[in-house]
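Problem: given the chain below (376 residues), write out its structure.
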Amino acid sequence: MSADRTTSARPSRRGRLLAAAAVLPLLAGALGACGYGSQAKEGDNTSSPAPKGKKLSVDEVKIGYFPNLTHATALVGDQEGILQKELGGTKLTSAAFNAGPSEIEALNSRSIDIGWIGPSPAINGFAKSDGQALRIIGGSASGGVKLVVNPKKIKTLDDVKGKKIATPQLGNTQDVAFLHWIAEQGWKVDAESGKGDVSVVRTDNKVTPDAYKSGSIDGAWVPEPTASKLVAEGGKVLLDEGTLWPDKKFVITNLIVSQSFLDEHPDVVEAVLRGSVKTNQWIKDNPDKAKAAANAALKKLSGKALPPEVLDPAWKSIEITDDPLAATLNTEAEHAVKAGLLEEPDLKGIYDLGPLNKVLKAEGKPEVDDAGLSAK
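Solution.
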């Protein structure tokens, strides 16, 4: 798909339905990466003590994210107070979401202003609003997605044919990736039903481990920490999705903002981005402390911390990054189109990386690229 494409076909009824399905993300116990055992309620709000310092252009900024490890920037930045520190006297309020559509709805209704979210809901939120609802303003995480299988039933990649493999949801990021991989093998599967040379079973990641233990699925193409949970149950990693991408990098979590909030409060957006960049650096400088902080945040949000046998390998497989890896988002959209799960979108303007690059320059870090998908 060309980055300069300026037209897109009006979606058919089937296309609209499938595009709506594609909005569905990595559920938090399931997308955009997904948390294990999450019990957080949609839109649950938490807020830190009264902030200190000078207020910015708004009294309060509301952020959203999922209670899962691929949202480590938000988890750690909120837990450790790094985000709030950059906001000074402007109060930070956070809301936990278990699904991308709910977070996009919250962004559209201005229940939140800024959110961490997976690529599929970001693409769909942008496309369905004709490019008016949101902008991707930063990166957060790469990687952390694996094909884990029952080693008694599947010993090689060729053995996947004829088996039942779970993905988190129809049209979500992992579902698209698996369908694309299946096509690359020369196998055929009906994307909508999941039936064909491989049975694609759409299963909420919260129940995927139980489905694996019961034998109702033979494996799963899932994000962390669900992949490590399956390994803890005796599964084997047959393929790390990172090996399919250049430099083993692909976007799994973006940072988005509503277009109206970006226009009205650029100083607040810049402060959140500064907090995000500083959080990411703190995570890299203090990996053990950061892992503990993320798990403490998960426990606070879901009531259940991840056990070490799940937390440790899951944490290692996720790369925290300021770079939104724009070229890979474009490729993921192309994969969804090829799979028949998305009408070809016009992604021109989905990125506004000016504020992030300003922050990165001030921190002495290299600027990041928008892959030609900026409005400017």
